[in-house]
């Protein structure tokens, strides 16, 4: 395999930037006497020794996180068309029933969290398409539409909680930039999927009439079929309402964590934390997602009255708990379907070949 120097430089730069941003959860930077000083926010040794005291919230946090795959499989069912039919609701016994969607999502989350490349969405669509579902472009399009519905639900919850926080005088949370970032991402996402549904069939018809690029024609047709729900307001509304389930589960998980570490308004703060860490990682040109997570999570927690030490523990343990849970759920799904590590590496290799 040929290693491209530009990719290596980008990867190293992103890793360094992520490390610097994450380090701000543990250290503060100050200028005095014309010199730059990097000081610890708290005693790191004592911080490590106290980490086991957070188990009372880490365990329920992981339990709630474990439900996300099952809840998202329900939402995906509202956007995924049945094979060889125009009906968006899979018939009884369909190979794209809830279990198949859960399996695809679990393996996709495993690939996303355990392997480099952030190919979870493609992996989920690939697994479903190879398991009797629609072709890869249709599965991926319907998956992205389901994610858009969840993103819309998250934006609605965050906007409501941000208004309540403003009325209560909560300071220190960059609410306005956060909502602007979420609104822009939501509009771009919506326009992209709507345009794909509208123009993909036309482009496919033109290419087919000229006898050009038959493979691209099939891809465009499959992509369009995966977005059939765009023209069904009833399905979209039902999917959007169902999408509140994973959003509320995530918000409750963070609310329990905030309650344990002493955050005020923890029920309010749980939803704000989910919105903050999600919207902040959509900033263009910022590949250091882990560092951004630590930075935004600790800043939001401190604004809600959490001490520096507890905020760092919240960021570190919530990140570790999420990744560990998704990996365990994915491994469980793989074992239930008798798939080993070699099969997962093959999934990742074929997904990378498809995306390149």
Structural class: mainly alpha
Work out the helix count.
15
> How far apart, in Å, are the first and last alpha carbons?
14 Å
Largest sheet: 2 strands, antiparallel
Gyration radius over CA: 22 Å
The average pLDDT score comes to: 82
- Secondary-structure element order, as H and E? HEEHHHHHHHHHHHHHH
User: Low-confidence runs (pLDDT<50, min 5 residues)?
Assistant: 84-95
Strand content: under 5%
Helix content range:
over 70%
- Largest sheet, spatial ordering of strands: 1-2
The coarse overall form would be globular
Count of the separate structural domains: 1
Number of strands: 2
Brief summary of the model shown:
This protein is mainly alpha-helical and 356 residues long.
How would you describe the overall organization of this protein?
The protein has 356 residues and is mainly α. The protein has one domain. Helix content is 72%, strand content 3%. It is built from 15 helices and two strands. The protein has a two-stranded antiparallel sheet. α5 (98-114) packs across α14 (308-336) and α7 crosses α10. The chain is globular. The two termini are 14 Å apart. Residues 84-95 have low confidence and may be disordered.
């Amino acid at each position: 395999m040929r290693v491209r120097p530009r990719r290596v430089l980008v990867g190293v730069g992103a890793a360094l930037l992520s490390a610097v941003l994450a380090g701000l959860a543990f250290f503060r930077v100050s200028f005095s006497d014309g010199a730059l000083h990097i000081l610890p926010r708290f005693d790191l040794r004592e911080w490590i020794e106290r980490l086991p005291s957070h188990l009372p919230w880490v365990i329920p946090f992981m339990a709630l996180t474990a439900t996300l795959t099952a809840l998202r499989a329900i939402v995906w069912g509202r956007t995924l068309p049945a094979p060889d039919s125009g009906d968006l609701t899979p018939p009884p016994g369909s190979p794209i029933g809830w279990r198949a969607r859960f399996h695809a999502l679990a393996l996709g989350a495993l690939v996303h969290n355990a392997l480099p490349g952030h190919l979870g969405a493609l992996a989920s669509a690939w697994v479903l398409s190879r398991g009797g579902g629609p072709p890869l472009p249709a599965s991926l399009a319907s998956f992205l539409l389901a994610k858009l519905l969840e993103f819309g639900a998250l934006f609605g919850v965050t906007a409501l909680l941000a208004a309540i926080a403003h009325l209560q005088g909560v300071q220190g949370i960059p609410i306005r930039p956060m909502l602007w970032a979420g609104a822009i991402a939501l509009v771009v996402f919506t326009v992209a999927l709507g345009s794909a549904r509208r123009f993909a069939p036309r482009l496919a018809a033109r290419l087919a009439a000229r006898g050009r690029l038959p493979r691209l024609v099939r891809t465009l047709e499959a992509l369009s079929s995966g977005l059939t729900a765009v023209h069904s307001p009833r399905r979209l509304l039902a999917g959007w309402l169902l999408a509140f389930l994973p959003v509320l589960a995530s918000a409750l998980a963070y609310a329990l964590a905030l309650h344990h570490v002493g955050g005020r308004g923890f029920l309010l703060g749980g939803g704000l934390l989910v919105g903050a860490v999600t919207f902040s990682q959509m900033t263009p040109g910022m590949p250091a997602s882990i560092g951004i997570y630590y930075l935004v999570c600790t800043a939001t927690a401190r604004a809600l009255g959490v001490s520096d030490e507890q905020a760092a523990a919240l960021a570190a343990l919530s990140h570790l708990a999420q990744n560990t849970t998704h990996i365990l759920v994915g491994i469980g799904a793989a074992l239930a379907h008798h798939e080993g590590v070699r099969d997962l590496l093959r999934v990742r290799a074929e997904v990378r070949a498809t995306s390149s």
